[in-house]
């Protein structure tokens, strides 16, 4: 789970920081020497910039991106969840305990949560949602494609 820090002022990024972040977003496993070549700095200077971006909270963590299809999750769904009265915290706990919910945002509006769910088959959908619908109303849409995958926000 990601921990969000309250940031009072955004970090000031220069062109080198932006290039470094873009290169890390493409492949965070690149050696510092390769990143240094890409951004035009020495390896020690590049390593120091990475440490500074981490200290400023710009870089939260380095992680791996997995293709769910390679693990047999052939379907994805977006599930809007509206807890029944008095069930908000219990619904949030239920969602946390179901590993097929791979993302979940608490939102404003008619629904309280918007979640991404991975599935091996369509038959699995009712089985998973039955764990939630005891305490909440749900509305589900099957994902056909993802024209914009999770990406960096504008860095400029």
From TrEMBL:
Task: Name the Gene3D superfamilies for this protein.
Answer: 3.30.70.920, Winged helix-like DNA-binding domain superfamily/Winged helix DNA-binding domain (1.10.10.10)
One GO biological-process annotation of the entry reads: response to amino acid
What's a single GO CC term here? cytosol
Read off the SUPFAM superfamilies from this record: Winged helix' DNA-binding domain
Where in this chain does the record put each HTH asnC-type domain? 13-74
State what protein this is by name. Answer: HTH-type transcriptional regulator LrpC
GO terms for molecular function, please?
sequence-specific DNA binding
User: What are the protein's UniProt keywords?
Assistant: DNA-binding, Transcription, Transcription regulation
Q: Which domain of life is it from?
A: Bacteria
